[in-house]
Amino acid sequence: MTDIMFAHEYIGNIHIHTIRSDGGKDIEEIADIAQDIGLDFICITDHDFTQTTLPLKKEGFYGDIAVLIGLEIGKDDHHYLAFGIKELIRYENLRPQEIIDKVHSQGGFGFLAHPFEKGMPFFERSKAYIWRDLRVKGFTGICIWNFMSRWKERIKSPIHGIVMLCFKREFLKGPSKKTMEFYDTLCLSRKVVAIGGSDAHGTIFKYGPFSFTPISYKFLLNSINIHIFLNSPLPREFKEAKELIYDAIKNGRLFIAHDGLSPSKNFRFEFVSLKGSDLFMGEESSFEEGYLLIQLPSVGQIRIVRNGRVVRVIYGIGGIHRVTEEGVYRVEVYKHIPIFGWRPWIFSNPIYLR
User: Fold this and answer.
1) Is residue 333 within 8 Å of residue 296, measured between CB atoms?
2) What stretches of 129-273 adopt beta strand conformation (E)?
3) pTM of the model
4) Alpha-carbon torsion 105, 109, 111, 113, what sign?
5) How far apart are CA 320 and CA 314, in angstroms?
6) What are the residues whose beta carbons fall under 8 Å from the beta carbon of 192, sequence distance 6 or more?
7) Which of 93, 165, 204, 279 could form a disulfide with 283 if both were Cys (CB 3.0 to 4.6 A apart)?
8) Rounded to an integer, what distance in angstroms lies between the CA atom of residue 200 and that of residue 220?
9) Distance of CA 265 to the CA centre of its chain
10) What structural domains does the chain harbor?
11) φ, ψ at 179 (rounded to 5°)
Protein backbone atom coordinates (compact mmCIF):
# COMPACT_ATOMS: atom_id res chain seq x y z
CA MET A 1 0.00 0.00 0.00
CA THR A 2 1.23 3.50 -0.74
CA ASP A 3 -0.20 5.28 2.30
CA ILE A 4 2.27 5.92 5.11
CA MET A 5 -0.23 7.74 7.32
CA PHE A 6 -2.35 5.91 9.87
CA ALA A 7 0.21 3.12 10.01
CA HIS A 8 -0.61 2.16 13.60
CA GLU A 9 -3.53 -0.27 13.95
CA TYR A 10 -5.30 -0.98 17.25
CA ILE A 11 -8.07 -3.46 17.98
CA GLY A 12 -10.99 -2.81 20.32
CA ASN A 13 -14.37 -4.10 21.41
CA ILE A 14 -16.82 -1.27 22.04
CA HIS A 15 -20.16 -2.67 23.23
CA ILE A 16 -19.73 -4.44 26.57
CA HIS A 17 -21.91 -4.80 29.67
CA THR A 18 -20.74 -5.42 33.23
CA ILE A 19 -22.36 -6.26 36.56
CA ARG A 20 -23.33 -2.59 36.80
CA SER A 21 -26.16 -3.43 34.40
CA ASP A 22 -27.01 -6.87 33.00
CA GLY A 23 -23.53 -8.28 32.49
CA GLY A 24 -21.85 -11.13 34.33
CA LYS A 25 -18.42 -9.73 35.30
CA ASP A 26 -16.86 -6.52 36.59
CA ILE A 27 -14.59 -4.18 34.65
CA GLU A 28 -11.38 -5.59 36.09
CA GLU A 29 -12.26 -9.15 35.10
CA ILE A 30 -13.28 -8.10 31.59
CA ALA A 31 -10.07 -6.10 31.14
CA ASP A 32 -8.03 -9.17 32.10
CA ILE A 33 -9.86 -11.23 29.48
CA ALA A 34 -9.36 -8.52 26.85
CA GLN A 35 -5.63 -8.47 27.56
CA ASP A 36 -5.39 -12.24 27.29
CA ILE A 37 -7.12 -12.10 23.91
CA GLY A 38 -4.78 -9.38 22.66
CA LEU A 39 -7.09 -6.39 22.40
CA ASP A 40 -5.75 -2.87 22.78
CA PHE A 41 -8.87 -1.15 24.16
CA ILE A 42 -12.43 -1.79 25.25
CA CYS A 43 -15.43 0.49 25.74
CA ILE A 44 -17.87 -0.37 28.52
CA THR A 45 -21.47 0.58 27.66
CA ASP A 46 -23.70 -0.35 30.58
CA HIS A 47 -27.38 0.59 30.43
CA ASP A 48 -28.33 4.02 31.74
CA PHE A 49 -31.40 2.82 33.68
CA THR A 50 -29.34 0.55 35.95
CA GLN A 51 -26.96 3.28 37.12
CA THR A 52 -27.04 6.42 39.23
CA THR A 53 -23.68 7.78 38.08
CA LEU A 54 -21.32 7.28 35.17
CA PRO A 55 -18.22 5.50 36.56
CA LEU A 56 -15.61 7.59 34.73
CA LYS A 57 -13.17 7.04 37.59
CA LYS A 58 -12.95 3.45 36.38
CA GLU A 59 -11.37 4.58 33.11
CA GLY A 60 -7.67 4.05 32.56
CA PHE A 61 -5.08 1.49 31.60
CA TYR A 62 -5.56 -1.97 33.09
CA GLY A 63 -2.23 -3.51 32.22
CA ASP A 64 -1.92 -2.87 28.49
CA ILE A 65 -5.67 -2.42 27.94
CA ALA A 66 -7.20 1.06 27.68
CA VAL A 67 -10.64 0.92 29.30
CA LEU A 68 -13.10 3.65 28.27
CA ILE A 69 -16.53 4.24 29.77
CA GLY A 70 -19.47 4.92 27.48
CA LEU A 71 -23.20 4.38 27.92
CA GLU A 72 -26.08 2.55 26.25
CA ILE A 73 -29.07 4.86 26.59
CA GLY A 74 -32.61 3.52 26.18
CA LYS A 75 -34.75 0.68 27.45
CA ASP A 76 -37.55 -0.71 25.27
CA ASP A 77 -36.34 0.87 22.00
CA HIS A 78 -34.06 3.56 20.51
CA HIS A 79 -30.85 2.29 22.10
CA TYR A 80 -28.06 4.82 21.64
CA LEU A 81 -24.37 4.10 22.25
CA ALA A 82 -22.81 7.26 23.68
CA PHE A 83 -19.10 7.97 24.05
CA GLY A 84 -17.10 10.89 25.36
CA ILE A 85 -19.82 12.11 27.71
CA LYS A 86 -19.12 13.62 31.12
CA GLU A 87 -22.09 12.45 33.17
CA LEU A 88 -24.98 9.99 33.17
CA ILE A 89 -27.87 10.59 30.79
CA ARG A 90 -31.16 8.83 31.58
CA TYR A 91 -33.63 7.96 28.86
CA GLU A 92 -36.79 8.73 30.89
CA ASN A 93 -39.05 11.40 29.40
CA LEU A 94 -36.63 12.05 26.54
CA ARG A 95 -37.45 11.67 22.88
CA PRO A 96 -34.77 10.00 20.72
CA GLN A 97 -33.66 13.32 19.25
CA GLU A 98 -33.34 14.82 22.73
CA ILE A 99 -31.05 11.95 23.78
CA ILE A 100 -28.80 12.59 20.78
CA ASP A 101 -28.79 16.31 21.53
CA LYS A 102 -27.92 15.75 25.20
CA VAL A 103 -24.97 13.57 24.27
CA HIS A 104 -23.79 16.25 21.86
CA SER A 105 -24.20 18.99 24.49
CA GLN A 106 -21.72 17.15 26.70
CA GLY A 107 -19.15 17.03 23.93
CA GLY A 108 -19.92 13.39 23.21
CA PHE A 109 -20.88 11.44 20.12
CA GLY A 110 -23.00 8.39 19.49
CA PHE A 111 -24.36 5.60 17.34
CA LEU A 112 -27.75 4.04 16.69
CA ALA A 113 -27.49 0.56 18.20
CA HIS A 114 -29.00 -2.50 16.45
CA PRO A 115 -31.64 -0.34 14.71
CA PHE A 116 -33.34 -3.20 12.84
CA GLU A 117 -32.72 -6.25 15.01
CA LYS A 118 -35.39 -8.98 15.01
CA GLY A 119 -34.92 -10.59 18.41
CA MET A 120 -34.77 -14.27 19.37
CA PRO A 121 -37.90 -16.23 18.30
CA PHE A 122 -37.26 -18.88 20.94
CA PHE A 123 -37.45 -17.92 24.61
CA GLU A 124 -37.53 -14.14 24.07
CA ARG A 125 -40.50 -14.25 21.68
CA SER A 126 -38.66 -12.04 19.18
CA LYS A 127 -38.41 -9.10 21.56
CA ALA A 128 -36.34 -6.53 19.67
CA TYR A 129 -34.90 -3.18 20.74
CA ILE A 130 -35.25 -1.34 17.45
CA TRP A 131 -35.21 2.27 16.28
CA ARG A 132 -38.73 3.38 15.40
CA ASP A 133 -37.98 7.06 14.84
CA LEU A 134 -35.44 7.23 12.03
CA ARG A 135 -35.99 10.93 11.40
CA VAL A 136 -33.36 11.76 14.03
CA LYS A 137 -30.33 13.84 13.13
CA GLY A 138 -26.91 14.57 14.57
CA PHE A 139 -25.80 11.03 15.34
CA THR A 140 -22.24 10.13 14.37
CA GLY A 141 -23.11 6.78 12.88
CA ILE A 142 -24.68 3.35 13.14
CA CYS A 143 -23.66 0.08 14.72
CA ILE A 144 -24.19 -2.01 11.61
CA TRP A 145 -23.03 -5.37 13.04
CA ASN A 146 -23.94 -6.57 16.52
CA PHE A 147 -22.87 -10.14 17.32
CA MET A 148 -25.59 -11.00 19.84
CA SER A 149 -28.38 -9.44 17.78
CA ARG A 150 -27.49 -11.37 14.64
CA TRP A 151 -26.67 -14.60 16.48
CA LYS A 152 -29.90 -14.89 18.46
CA GLU A 153 -32.15 -14.12 15.47
CA ARG A 154 -31.56 -17.65 14.17
CA ILE A 155 -32.63 -19.45 17.35
CA LYS A 156 -36.19 -20.64 16.83
CA SER A 157 -36.16 -23.72 19.08
CA PRO A 158 -33.92 -25.62 21.52
CA ILE A 159 -32.47 -27.55 18.56
CA HIS A 160 -31.60 -24.29 16.78
CA GLY A 161 -30.03 -23.11 20.02
CA ILE A 162 -27.78 -26.16 20.27
CA VAL A 163 -26.68 -25.80 16.64
CA MET A 164 -25.98 -22.09 17.06
CA LEU A 165 -23.97 -22.75 20.21
CA CYS A 166 -21.87 -25.37 18.45
CA PHE A 167 -21.26 -23.20 15.38
CA LYS A 168 -21.42 -19.67 16.76
CA ARG A 169 -18.81 -18.26 14.41
CA GLU A 170 -19.66 -20.20 11.30
CA PHE A 171 -23.40 -19.48 11.21
CA LEU A 172 -23.20 -15.80 12.20
CA LYS A 173 -24.96 -13.54 9.74
CA GLY A 174 -23.40 -10.31 8.56
CA PRO A 175 -25.10 -6.92 8.82
CA SER A 176 -28.71 -7.20 7.69
CA LYS A 177 -29.79 -6.09 4.23
CA LYS A 178 -32.16 -3.54 5.78
CA THR A 179 -29.38 -2.08 7.92
CA MET A 180 -26.99 -1.73 5.00
CA GLU A 181 -29.64 -0.23 2.71
CA PHE A 182 -30.40 2.37 5.39
CA TYR A 183 -26.70 3.01 5.99
CA ASP A 184 -25.78 3.33 2.30
CA THR A 185 -28.67 5.73 1.69
CA LEU A 186 -27.53 7.99 4.54
CA CYS A 187 -23.96 7.98 3.24
CA LEU A 188 -25.11 9.47 -0.07
CA SER A 189 -25.95 12.73 1.69
CA ARG A 190 -23.43 12.90 4.54
CA LYS A 191 -20.58 11.08 6.21
CA VAL A 192 -21.91 8.32 8.52
CA VAL A 193 -19.51 6.19 10.57
CA ALA A 194 -20.09 2.44 10.74
CA ILE A 195 -19.08 0.50 13.84
CA GLY A 196 -19.69 -3.02 15.12
CA GLY A 197 -19.68 -4.66 18.51
CA SER A 198 -20.14 -7.86 20.46
CA ASP A 199 -22.86 -6.66 22.86
CA ALA A 200 -21.12 -8.85 25.41
CA HIS A 201 -23.04 -9.74 28.57
CA GLY A 202 -21.64 -13.08 29.67
CA THR A 203 -24.78 -13.74 31.68
CA ILE A 204 -26.23 -17.03 32.90
CA PHE A 205 -29.06 -18.56 30.87
CA LYS A 206 -31.67 -20.66 32.70
CA TYR A 207 -33.97 -23.12 30.94
CA GLY A 208 -35.78 -25.66 33.06
CA PRO A 209 -33.23 -27.48 35.23
CA PHE A 210 -30.35 -26.20 33.11
CA SER A 211 -28.24 -23.17 33.98
CA PHE A 212 -25.16 -22.12 31.99
CA THR A 213 -23.38 -19.23 30.26
CA PRO A 214 -24.06 -19.77 26.54
CA ILE A 215 -21.51 -17.25 25.25
CA SER A 216 -18.57 -16.16 27.39
CA TYR A 217 -16.78 -12.84 27.48
CA LYS A 218 -13.69 -14.63 26.19
CA PHE A 219 -15.59 -15.67 23.09
CA LEU A 220 -17.41 -12.38 22.54
CA LEU A 221 -14.41 -10.09 22.96
CA ASN A 222 -12.86 -11.96 20.06
CA SER A 223 -15.91 -11.69 17.83
CA ILE A 224 -17.06 -8.41 16.23
CA ASN A 225 -14.30 -5.87 16.83
CA ILE A 226 -13.25 -2.56 15.36
CA HIS A 227 -9.74 -1.82 14.11
CA ILE A 228 -8.77 1.84 14.35
CA PHE A 229 -5.82 3.63 12.77
CA LEU A 230 -3.57 6.29 14.27
CA ASN A 231 -0.69 8.35 12.94
CA SER A 232 1.49 7.47 15.91
CA PRO A 233 1.73 4.76 18.58
CA LEU A 234 -0.98 4.81 21.24
CA PRO A 235 0.49 6.73 24.20
CA ARG A 236 0.54 5.41 27.76
CA GLU A 237 -0.87 8.67 29.10
CA PHE A 238 -4.55 7.74 29.33
CA LYS A 239 -6.19 11.09 28.60
CA GLU A 240 -4.23 11.43 25.37
CA ALA A 241 -4.88 7.79 24.42
CA LYS A 242 -8.60 8.24 25.00
CA GLU A 243 -8.71 11.33 22.79
CA LEU A 244 -6.89 9.54 19.97
CA ILE A 245 -9.13 6.46 20.14
CA TYR A 246 -12.29 8.56 20.12
CA ASP A 247 -10.96 10.75 17.30
CA ALA A 248 -10.39 7.69 15.12
CA ILE A 249 -13.87 6.35 15.88
CA LYS A 250 -15.61 9.68 15.28
CA ASN A 251 -13.89 10.05 11.93
CA GLY A 252 -14.58 6.51 10.75
CA ARG A 253 -10.89 5.71 10.49
CA LEU A 254 -11.65 2.06 11.13
CA PHE A 255 -13.00 -1.19 9.84
CA ILE A 256 -15.24 -3.80 11.45
CA ALA A 257 -14.24 -7.44 11.53
CA HIS A 258 -15.31 -10.82 12.83
CA ASP A 259 -11.91 -11.63 14.28
CA GLY A 260 -13.13 -14.91 15.72
CA LEU A 261 -13.73 -16.15 12.20
CA SER A 262 -10.23 -15.23 11.04
CA PRO A 263 -7.67 -12.63 12.17
CA SER A 264 -8.16 -9.44 10.18
CA LYS A 265 -5.23 -7.30 11.30
CA ASN A 266 -3.41 -5.65 8.38
CA PHE A 267 -6.52 -5.20 6.23
CA ARG A 268 -6.17 -1.95 4.31
CA PHE A 269 -8.44 0.06 2.03
CA GLU A 270 -7.47 3.37 0.46
CA PHE A 271 -7.84 5.53 -2.63
CA VAL A 272 -4.99 7.00 -4.67
CA SER A 273 -5.84 9.60 -7.28
CA LEU A 274 -4.10 9.90 -10.64
CA LYS A 275 -2.61 13.15 -9.33
CA GLY A 276 -1.01 11.33 -6.40
CA SER A 277 -3.27 12.38 -3.51
CA ASP A 278 -4.74 9.66 -1.34
CA LEU A 279 -7.64 9.01 1.01
CA PHE A 280 -8.04 6.52 3.84
CA MET A 281 -11.16 4.85 5.24
CA GLY A 282 -13.57 7.47 6.55
CA GLU A 283 -12.10 10.33 4.53
CA GLU A 284 -13.84 12.36 1.86
CA SER A 285 -12.83 14.67 -0.97
CA SER A 286 -14.00 16.10 -4.26
CA PHE A 287 -13.93 13.53 -7.03
CA GLU A 288 -10.78 12.69 -8.94
CA GLU A 289 -10.11 9.61 -11.02
CA GLY A 290 -7.80 7.08 -9.44
CA TYR A 291 -7.55 3.64 -7.91
CA LEU A 292 -8.92 1.82 -4.90
CA LEU A 293 -6.28 -0.33 -3.23
CA ILE A 294 -7.34 -3.27 -1.06
CA GLN A 295 -5.06 -5.52 0.99
CA LEU A 296 -6.13 -8.58 3.01
CA PRO A 297 -4.22 -10.53 5.67
CA SER A 298 -5.31 -13.78 4.00
CA VAL A 299 -7.35 -14.94 1.03
CA GLY A 300 -10.92 -13.72 0.81
CA GLN A 301 -13.72 -12.63 -1.48
CA ILE A 302 -13.63 -8.84 -1.87
CA ARG A 303 -16.81 -7.04 -2.81
CA ILE A 304 -16.35 -3.42 -3.86
CA VAL A 305 -19.52 -1.44 -3.18
CA ARG A 306 -20.37 1.92 -4.77
CA ASN A 307 -23.44 3.82 -3.56
CA GLY A 308 -24.84 0.64 -2.04
CA ARG A 309 -24.35 -1.61 -5.08
CA VAL A 310 -21.63 -4.21 -5.64
CA VAL A 311 -19.62 -3.12 -8.70
CA ARG A 312 -16.87 -5.72 -8.62
CA VAL A 313 -15.86 -8.97 -6.92
CA ILE A 314 -12.21 -9.96 -6.49
CA TYR A 315 -10.79 -13.19 -5.07
CA GLY A 316 -7.37 -13.24 -3.44
CA ILE A 317 -5.31 -11.32 -0.90
CA GLY A 318 -5.94 -7.91 -2.41
CA GLY A 319 -6.86 -5.98 -5.47
CA ILE A 320 -6.81 -2.73 -7.42
CA HIS A 321 -9.96 -1.14 -8.82
CA ARG A 322 -9.99 1.78 -11.24
CA VAL A 323 -12.35 4.58 -10.17
CA THR A 324 -13.86 6.66 -12.96
CA GLU A 325 -17.07 7.82 -11.26
CA GLU A 326 -17.81 9.78 -8.13
CA GLY A 327 -19.51 7.90 -5.33
CA VAL A 328 -19.34 6.43 -1.85
CA TYR A 329 -17.02 3.42 -1.99
CA ARG A 330 -16.67 0.75 0.67
CA VAL A 331 -15.50 -2.86 0.85
CA GLU A 332 -17.02 -6.06 2.19
CA VAL A 333 -14.85 -9.15 2.56
CA TYR A 334 -16.04 -12.75 2.95
CA LYS A 335 -13.94 -15.64 4.19
CA HIS A 336 -14.34 -19.17 2.84
CA ILE A 337 -14.88 -21.69 5.63
CA PRO A 338 -14.93 -25.37 4.60
CA ILE A 339 -18.47 -26.82 4.66
CA PHE A 340 -19.99 -23.42 5.55
CA GLY A 341 -18.96 -21.50 2.43
CA TRP A 342 -18.33 -17.76 2.23
CA ARG A 343 -18.94 -16.12 5.60
CA PRO A 344 -19.01 -12.36 6.40
CA TRP A 345 -15.65 -11.19 7.69
CA ILE A 346 -14.65 -7.54 7.16
CA PHE A 347 -16.68 -4.36 6.53
CA SER A 348 -14.81 -1.14 5.87
CA ASN A 349 -15.89 2.43 6.43
CA PRO A 350 -16.42 4.24 3.14
CA ILE A 351 -14.19 6.51 1.14
CA TYR A 352 -16.29 9.43 -0.05
CA LEU A 353 -15.59 10.84 -3.53
CA ARG A 354 -18.24 13.50 -4.01
Assistant:
1) yes
2) 141-146, 193-197, 205-207, 210-212, 224-230, 254-258, 268-273
3) 0.96
4) negative
5) 9
6) 140, 141, 142, 183, 186
7) 279
8) 6
9) 15
10) 8-258 (3.20.20.140), 268-353 (2.60.40)
11) -60, -45
